[in-house]
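User: Assemble these into one structure.

Assistant: Restating your components, then the assembled model:
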Amino acid sequence: MIFTVDRDVLLNQLIIIQRGLPAKTPLPILYAIKLEVFEDYLLLTSSNTDIAIQVMLDDPSLSIKQTGSIAIPGRYLIEIMRKITSQKVEFALIEDRLVVIKADRSEFKLRLMDVEDYPEVDFLDLEDSIVLDSQMVKTIIKETNFATAVSEKRPILTGVNFKYHDNHLYCVATDSYRLSQKNVKLRTHSKVFDIVIPNKSLEELNKILDGFSEDVELYINPNKVLLKMNKILFQTRLLEGTYPDTMRIIPQEFPVTIPFNKEELLSAVERVSLLSPRDRETNYNIIKLALRPDHVVEISSTNSEVGDALEEVIPSSDITGPVLKIAFSSRYLVEALKSFSSSEVILQFAGEVKPFVIKGSQDPDLLHLILPVRID
Amino acid sequence: MIFTVDRDVLLNQLIIIQRGLPAKTPLPILYAIKLEVFEDYLLLTSSNTDIAIQVMLDDPSLSIKQTGSIAIPGRYLIEIMRKITSQKVEFALIEDRLVVIKADRSEFKLRLMDVEDYPEVDFLDLEDSIVLDSQMVKTIIKETNFATAVSEKRPILTGVNFKYHDNHLYCVATDSYRLSQKNVKLRTHSKVFDIVIPNKSLEELNKILDGFSEDVELYINPNKVLLKMNKILFQTRLLEGTYPDTMRIIPQEFPVTIPFNKEELLSAVERVSLLSPRDRETNYNIIKLALRPDHVVEISSTNSEVGDALEEVIPSSDITGPVLKIAFSSRYLVEALKSFSSSEVILQFAGEVKPFVIKGSQDPDLLHLILPVRID
């Protein structure tokens, strides 16, 4: 196995592959990147219990003298490539388990793992793709993934539910205290599906999509999904189980509707949160929102040890409905507000002990819902 | 106690005062900032076991309606000021232990501590100052403080030794494995002194100096030093004990002298360190440096588990002396090199088991010394 390649080209691919390396694994071979050298391209593969990533590298700078396969320690390889400043690097297998990497006046001899030990990764067949706009996928992840559960108490809630029927993709995330729902119309048709992708997989996918603006092809089977981004394959396992029916907890009638300038509301909520006491269950700061008869909104917190905070926020246009007082975890509202691209948002209230809903004037297909907490 | 002031002006002073708040203290009153309101200025004070800071605020934006003194929770006050966006803020004491902070449509009521409990801070008298250039003080801290000991095994080594005689300031830091020495000529005369300032105090001082370019006045007594930076007083305790005589460990004869381009040497050392094994005592990576008969310098590391690294570095000009092989902790060399402003450095060797010295072509008053480790 002997080849040379541009250092920048290889490093860019390694940064993607790195997303698939496990942080900790009982299977040390997975700390390796599988590097397969064919006649005129390289395949790089990484995998862990959740995801597997494969990149094909066929850059013009690639010059292959001899084919072969190795399992090379991932983190070391990436660190070396980061620190190298030369334009070209050469890889040569000099012993059964020893590769030499040469770059200008630098020479690294890296001990290899046994490539035969590297587990076979079954990437799904590239049949029946659903074509997605990469910007849309990034937006969905940004708008929903933060609302998934962190705790493993109900594992199914640690993922985002993607449901497809009638040409529409319905995406839902909830940790049972708040919920995010996004609906999008797709360009291509597909069979009906209903899957739950782990939040960590979506985080890694999001980082890979950062440098990618073309279309994404999606392939689905009952246990996993594969996303093809040009020369990158990204496959993740799915969460098992039935995702709860969340439609029934979204109120249909909202007697009180209050429009806000998003940034004004956000900074008022952030300031009030500085002094607010923490909720025992979620460890988040509890704040109060009250609509006064003069149609000014008061956001406040009371903390017997530290002190009180009070903000007056003037709604950005007309309010409907009677006065109201509601309490909730400020972090839920902060995170929801931050996920909107709209500068104007509308808070819709069904009652003082019922979930309330946030919508954006420029985000018609996005809905956030927050459960209030009871206060005296 | 009632006053108004520009939010930006107050925040800038609070950011300085914050450096004196303790991270953790058995004396909760020290979590407070002492705020004294006089006829036409404010005094802000913070202190912990090592340092005390006092700032005088007499900005034109300050408007004082009523004088008084309070002890206000430091972190809360600073967080609130950071999050406020209005131009002006008003402080008013409304109860014995309750202050109201108003800013536009925000209102914070903060519970106070008893200002009578705040310990008296004895700042040194402003007599017999030594005038220092603030840039010079920053440079000395940058060039020496990193070489102090982290461990408390020999407490005296956790500070930088400043010795003054004959118009010169001699600054030394060592953790007993490496040493940094800087000599500067002072503009003003002073009595002879020999003090050790704790490294943490120098770190905080360095952060405060970041936004300061005028002269610094230095006042010294046997237990503490006070630095006056315009309207800021920064006082720190000194370390007790006698600083070791380090002159005798610096070799006087260097049979081998090798000049390097600093960046080239630094990046070669950093790359080789990626694979190098760790020293048991210091937990730092051990690398080897060898001068070959052809006057190329080899920097290398050997790691039976991971692999080997080898860099060839061409000295930047003529070498004196015979071939040589020496091993040491790469981090010491990396940190020493980074502290030089020179682009050319000279490594001077007294022998394979003797300390070696690093000097910079543009840093005539700076010397770094590193102890080698024995290898087979």
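The CA atoms of residues 266 and 334 of chain B lie 6 Å apart.
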